[in-house]
């Protein structure tokens, strides 16, 4: 077959696959062809299977080497493994799935990189609408408009099917959840600020430690799943809310105790550090002076410390011996200085101290009141070392506690948001429970336009409220309502800018 156009080795990859498929079809046809009896009455053998064209390359200087036929395998994906595709929300029937599991055409959130999208805001809008055919179509329309106009990124927000209970209990829970929501948000903001204060020198890495369940806050919110193990949905709503309230209250109690001890230690340390960072007039001298700088245990002599402005150094050297009688000649020495001046020692007889101070003041030399006490200086140095050691020992455990419990508090907060959506949706849309919750992350500078789109799409849910929102100039005398807090649809706000 040398030089034949059937040589597979001389064809491209696509041609070889095509020829292989032709061969496979021939095999299938031959196996399915009915057998015909031979002329002599004996059954005929099946038709021969078409041979696979073989390429026979030649060795240099020798006979051609035969090659076994290649097996062409065509891999066909299993259709049953693919998720069902829904062309439209209107194609879904209420009986196709429970209300909390209905499919929506909202893009799944996939984090490909930790880089923050600068066009997205740090806030989320958690909304819900009834789950009937008309409103599912409205949600689909809303998603299409916001996606095409680049107003927001939308994802489903799954909420389990809770036990509803009585209407009175839901009304009471609505008020309680509102207070608990505010409490939880303030708590996590306080904990975030505590992380900033503890991580003094690494404030740029604060958000790396503010995680929820091991992921960044945005990813957790957009991928939220109800924790059935910690907050069983089969329990009454009152029990679930009580569990969340007790958890948050315990975290706050522990936070106060731990931060109080750490802040006391930190305050004492800061007071000592301030003493060592001031100017020569106010700062401690324990880390500056040495025993060798002073005349000690003398009945007649004493060493004073004098602060001299830098421009007056030469004047001091010329005059200090004549400022008073009985000043020891050549007893001055510069032991420290800052931007303003220097600290000099000078030795004299005790009985001329007052006279020397008065003359020094006339020449703009200031005597610093200081008497060397070795025990006191040693105690001050040991106190600083002790406080630094205690702060270092408390830093690691406190930061770990803050990271773990910030995560727990944040997770509880988002669960509270889910509960609020459920309760408010049931109160507003009625029974049986049938609504769809959606999480929107607005683009920066697009919140006003996004709000207009939502009010327009869902205005049929409450015509009066929608009209008053669209016409902000409407003012009803005697009725003080903040229209910005009420919309035709259920709405809750999640702000992740915890440090602003």
UniProtKB/TrEMBL annotation:
<keyword id="KW-0406">Ion transport</keyword>
<dbReference type="Pfam" id="PF03223">
    <property type="entry name" value="V-ATPase_C"/>
</dbReference>
<keyword id="KW-0375">Hydrogen ion transport</keyword>
<dbReference type="GO" id="GO:0005765">
    <property type="term" value="C:lysosomal membrane"/>
</dbReference>
<dbReference type="GO" id="GO:0046961">
    <property type="term" value="F:proton-transporting ATPase activity, rotational mechanism"/>
</dbReference>
<keyword id="KW-0813">Transport</keyword>
<feature type="region of interest" description="Disordered">
    <location>
        <begin position="34"/>
        <end position="67"/>
    </location>
</feature>
<dbReference type="InterPro" id="IPR004907">
    <property type="entry name" value="ATPase_V1-cplx_csu"/>
</dbReference>
<feature type="compositionally biased region" description="Low complexity">
    <location>
        <begin position="34"/>
        <end position="44"/>
    </location>
</feature>
<comment type="subunit">
    <text>V-ATPase is a heteromultimeric enzyme made up of two complexes: the ATP-hydrolytic V1 complex and the proton translocation V0 complex. The V1 complex consists of three catalytic AB heterodimers that form a heterohexamer, three peripheral stalks each consisting of EG heterodimers, one central rotor including subunits D and F, and the regulatory subunits C and H. The proton translocation complex V0 consists of the proton transport subunit a, a ring of proteolipid subunits c9c'', rotary subunit d, subunits e and f, and two accessory subunits.</text>
</comment>
<comment type="similarity">
    <text>Belongs to the V-ATPase C subunit family.</text>
</comment>
<dbReference type="GO" id="GO:0000221">
    <property type="term" value="C:vacuolar proton-transporting V-type ATPase, V1 domain"/>
</dbReference>
<dbReference type="InterPro" id="IPR036132">
    <property type="entry name" value="Vac_ATP_synth_c_sf"/>
</dbReference>
<protein>
    <recommendedName>
        <fullName>V-type proton ATPase subunit C</fullName>
    </recommendedName>
</protein>
<comment type="function">
    <text>Subunit of the V1 complex of vacuolar(H+)-ATPase (V-ATPase), a multisubunit enzyme composed of a peripheral complex (V1) that hydrolyzes ATP and a membrane integral complex (V0) that translocates protons. V-ATPase is responsible for acidifying and maintaining the pH of intracellular compartments and in some cell types, is targeted to the plasma membrane, where it is responsible for acidifying the extracellular environment. Subunit C is necessary for the assembly of the catalytic sector of the enzyme and is likely to have a specific function in its catalytic activity.</text>
</comment>
């Amino acid at each position: 077959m040398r030089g034949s156009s059937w040589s597979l080795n001389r064809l491209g990859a696509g041609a070889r696959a095509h020829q292989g498929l032709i061969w496979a079809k021939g095999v299938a046809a031959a196996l399915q062809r009915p057998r015909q009896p031979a002329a002599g009455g004996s059954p005929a053998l099946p038709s021969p299977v078409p041979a696979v064209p073989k390429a026979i390359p030649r060795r240099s200087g020798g006979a051609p080497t035969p090659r076994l036929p290649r097996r062409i395998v065509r891999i066909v994906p299993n259709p049953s493994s693919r998720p069902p595709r829904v062309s439209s929300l209107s194609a879904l029937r209420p009986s196709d799935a429970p209300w909390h599991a209905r499919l929506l055409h909202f893009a799944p959130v996939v984090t490909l990189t930790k880089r923050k999208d600068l066009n997205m805001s740090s806030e989320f809008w958690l909304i819900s609408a009834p789950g009937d055919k008309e409103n599912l179509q409205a949600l689909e329309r809303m998603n299409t408009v916001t996606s095409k106009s680049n107003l927001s990124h939308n994802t489903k927000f799954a909420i389990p099917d809770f036990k509803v209970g009585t209407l009175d209990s839901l009304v009471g829970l609505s008020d309680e959840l509102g207070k608990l929501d505010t409490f939880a948000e303030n708590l996590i903001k306080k904990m975030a600020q505590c992380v900033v204060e503890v991580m003094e020198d690494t404030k740029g890495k604060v958000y790396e430690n503010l995680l929820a369940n091991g992921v960044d806050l945005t990813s957790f919110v957009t991928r939220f799943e109800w924790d059935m193990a910690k907050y069983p949905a089969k329990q009454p709503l009152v029990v679930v809310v009580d569990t969340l309230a007790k958890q948050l209250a315990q975290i706050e109690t522990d936070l106060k105790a731990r931060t109080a001890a750490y802040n006391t230690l930190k305050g004492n340390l800061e007071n000592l550090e301030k003493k060592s960072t001031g100017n020569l007039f106010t700062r401690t001298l324990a880390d500056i002076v040495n025993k060798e700088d002073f005349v000690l245990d003398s009945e007649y002599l004493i060493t004073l410390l004098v602060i001299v402005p830098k421009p007056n150094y030469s004047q001091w050297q010329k005059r200090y011996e004549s400022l008073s009688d009985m000043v020891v000649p050549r007893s001055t020495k510069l032991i420290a200085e800052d931007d303003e001046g220097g600290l000099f020692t000078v030795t004299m007889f005790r009985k001329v101290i007052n006279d020397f101070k008065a003359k020094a003041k006339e020449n703009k030399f200031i005597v610093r009141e200081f008497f060397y006490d070795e025990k006191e200086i040693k105690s001050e140095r040991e106190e600083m070392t002790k406080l630094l050691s205690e702060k270092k020992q408390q830093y690691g455990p406190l930061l770990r506690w803050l990271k773990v419990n910030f995560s727990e508090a944040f997770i509880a907060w988002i669960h509270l948001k889910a509960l609020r959506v459920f309760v408010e949706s049931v109160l507003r849309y009625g029974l049986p429970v049938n609504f769809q919750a959606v999480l929107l992350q607005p683009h920066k500078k697009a919140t006003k336009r996004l709000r207009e789109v939502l009010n327009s799409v869902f205005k049929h849910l409450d015509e009066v409220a929608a009209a008053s929102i669209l016409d902000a100039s409407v003012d009803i005398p005697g009725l003080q309502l903040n229209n910005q807090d009420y919309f035709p649809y259920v709405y809750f706000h999640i702000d992740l800018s915890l440090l602003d």
